[in-house]
Amino acid sequence: MNSSVIITADSPADLSGDLTARFNVKVMPLHIILDGKSYRDGIDITSENLFDYYDKNKVLPSTAAVSSAEYLDFFDKLTNDGSSVVHLSLSSEISSTHQNAALAARGREDIYVVDTKNLSSGMALLVLFACELRDGGHSAAEIFERLTQLLPKVRASFVLDTLDYMSKGGRCSSVTAFGANILGIKPSIEMSGGKLGLAKKYRGKQRDVMFRYISDRLCGAEEIDTKRAFLVHTGLSDALREDLRGLISDLVPFEEVLEATASCTISTHCGPGCMGVMYMVK
């Protein structure tokens, strides 16, 4: 293990406490603004708190990027013993976090900031790969270079149960959301080039849609890297998650299928009942 290299990530990587401990990752929480007060994503507020508040008040919190000054303080504390940092940021196409982190690292030879062009477990896949490179003795510069080569290999998508949250957050029009809800449309959203785009429209019951979505994602023509996959969600039942994991394992012989609960940053836009499967291709 290369103890002089520290791997860090923005909180929308949606890494559980178990995974951050297992892979020794430091997380920078984004800000969630609710009733004029700022909360640290995953520390002061959870997605469950967010959904409860929305159900009672029909008001969504807003999200705020970490400032350059905050990143600078974060990086300084990690590098004051001579260590180097490789930081994986939320896609620059959907947040200013990458720009702010890069600004804090400007002129520094001990900090490397990676624009993952991704979110949620799409980021997490790259974070864990970076940790394995670190444990293999690679330098921060080598890890940064390898990660930039891997960016196009990440496949990240999810299927929504409702468009209400995206509408409230300004990600789609209220007319589109109303029409989709009336028609029972559940859209699949995919990351491409760092941006979110519509991949497919589903109709039907939530469980059936999720099963069809997983089959569509994993039964394609691409050669999937079977090292690991993530099942990411916004608060599904234990039984449903077990069934979804079973389907993923039946379709592709992944060495491990990890689970992730979406952070507040992600849940603010996706809402409850959202689920995605994320993996890499060879």
Main sheet characteristics: 4 strands, parallel
In whole angstroms, how far apart are the ends? 25 Å
CATH class value of the largest domain: Alpha Beta
Percent of residues in helical segments? Answer: 40-55%
User: DSSP strand (E) fraction?
Assistant: 25-35%
What is the CATH third-level topology name of the largest domain? Answer: Rossmann fold
Please state the average pLDDT score.
Answer: 90
Radius of gyration: 18 Å
Number of strands: 14
- What is the H/E order? EHEEEHEHEHEHHEEHHEEHEHEHE
Shape verdict: globular
Number of helices, where a helix is a run of at least 4 consecutive DSSP H or I residues: 11
Low-confidence stretches: 169-180
Structural class comes to alpha/beta
Number of domains: 2
Q: Do you know the CATH architecture of the largest domain? A: 3-Layer(aba) Sandwich
- Strand adjacency order, main sheet: 2-1-6-7
Walk me through the structure.
The chain is α/β, with parallel strands linked by helices. The protein folds into two domains: 5-150, Rossmann fold (3-Layer(aba) Sandwich); 154-281, Hypothetical Protein Tm841, Chain: A,domain 3. It is built from eleven helices and 14 strands. The chain has helices at 17-23, 47-57, 68-79, 97-105, 120-135, 140-150, 164-168, 174-183, 206-218, 238-251, 264-270; strands at residues 5-10, 25-28, 31-34, 37-40, 62-64, 84-89, 111-115, 154-155, 157-159, 185-192, 195-203, 224-233, 256-261, 275-281. The strands form four sheets. A four-stranded parallel sheet has the order 2-1-6-7, with helices on both faces. Strands 8-14-12-13 form a four-stranded mixed sheet, with helices on both faces. It has a three-stranded antiparallel sheet with strand order 4-3-5, covered by helices on one side. Helix 3 packs across helix 4 (97-105), helix 5 runs antiparallel to helix 6 (140-150) and helix 9 (206-218) runs parallel beside helix 10 (238-251). The chain is globular and about 55 Å long. The two termini are 25 Å apart. 44% of the residues are buried.
